[in-house]
């Protein structure tokens, strides 16, 4: 390749690193073209899976401010650039790797922080963003309901307590103890 082509490839990869929420490096040795096509489909719309040249990708990652991946650029490397939910893409990679042991997850980066292969597998075990947000909303709604019940219970408890004190006072005043007017005589 001519030098301008390499510079253009590095610039494109740098843009992909910068515009992605996450990037996952994999080794694809032994996968067929059909399997790679299936992998791209399994990652969904929010991820782009590209076979890359190690040297150019390493330069692009460094230009994007990602230095933690330098050791992972060995052997045949492909990168999944994730622009959507990283959990969804991590699940797609993990599930594909279970069925196709030739795909090896090397590591990656999420929001500028390096991730090991094990951390990416843990990320894949998380529930999706939408499920976590709905659980959070449910928890907030439950806490609001509890707070409303407490605020409603305080006045009614006060009224019941006051009524019980009034009834007790009437009971004490009317059952054998002289009323204040009788005691003065």
UniProtKB/TrEMBL annotation:
PROSITE patterns tied to this protein: RIBOSOMAL_L10
Entry-linked InterPro entries: Ribosomal_uL10, Ribosomal_uL10-like_sf, Ribosomal_uL10_bac, Ribosomal_uL10_bac_type, Ribosomal_uL10_CS_bac
Keywords assigned: Ribonucleoprotein, Ribosomal protein, RNA-binding, rRNA-binding
Annotated spans, Disordered: 165-185
One GO cellular component term: ribosome
Pfam family, one: Ribosomal_L10
Stored CDD domains: Ribosomal_L10
Origin superkingdom: Bacteria
Residues annotated as signal peptide: none
Protein task: Forms part of the ribosomal stalk, playing a central role in the interaction of the ribosome with GTP-bound translation factors.
Protein family (similarity comment): Belongs to the universal ribosomal protein uL10 family.
Oligomer and partners: Part of the ribosomal stalk of the 50S ribosomal subunit. The N-terminus interacts with L11 and the large rRNA to form the base of the stalk. The C-terminus forms an elongated spine to which L12 dimers bind in a sequential fashion forming a multimeric L10(L12)X complex.
Protein's name in the database: Large ribosomal subunit protein uL10
Organism the protein comes from: Streptomyces sindenensis
Upper classification of the organism: Bacteria, Bacillati, Actinomycetota, Actinomycetes, Kitasatosporales
